[in-house]
Amino acid sequence: MKYKRILLKLSGESLMGSQGYGIDSVRLGEYAQQIKNIAQAGTEVAIVIGGGNIFRGLSGASKGFDRVKGDQMGMLATVINSLALSSALESAGQPAQVLTAINMYPIGEHYSKWKAIESLKQGKVVIISCGTGNPFFTTDTGSALRAIEVEAEVMLKGTRVDGVYTADPEKDPTATKFDTISYDEVLARGLKVMDLTATALCKENRMPIYVFNMDIVGNLEKMMNGEPIGTLVTAE
Questions:
Q1: Total-model pTM
Q2: Which residue numbers in the chain have pLDDT < 70?
Q3: How many helices (H) and strands (E) does the chain have?
């Protein structure tokens, strides 16, 4: 495997699968099997998952929710998804542990860098929920922060597109894909790889980001075996 320790960011929306809401058990099972395969091959896997399939704080704020309360609701949505993924992993025979940025034992242990690293070394998949634990920060920023904290070699962003494009490929048929791109070019072009805070945090700490399509079964293993299926974002 190409990397020894990774942070995998998963989209909450992708968990909806074809049903358009909530958690699709087929998609959940596919994710769990792919993650198990690389974990069993020796890669230490930490995961941050979004909550957009259940509730998104920013959209709640646009409908009249207090922004802080809306973001807290979004954090709870990530806990639901994290529990679902940990359950699917354990059903597949892969030990997993949920850590929460907000203390809510016994749902999950309270997150700390050292607890996360200890569990990774024990062969558990560590799922870190609640984002950063603070409002006004996305799960992208939470992913960047946790990747840096747990000393991952790379942050993988599993999305429904197969990399970073010059424009939104779902809207612009002439958009072309980058194999590699620098943080500075992402920021200069205004490309929506992640939000600005997350991208700046990765740039500052030289954390490479690899964007790929996680919804195609087998892509995670292909990426970990060095196949160029996505886009690498680095300092160069």
A1: 0.94
A2: 57-58, 60-61
A3: 8, 11
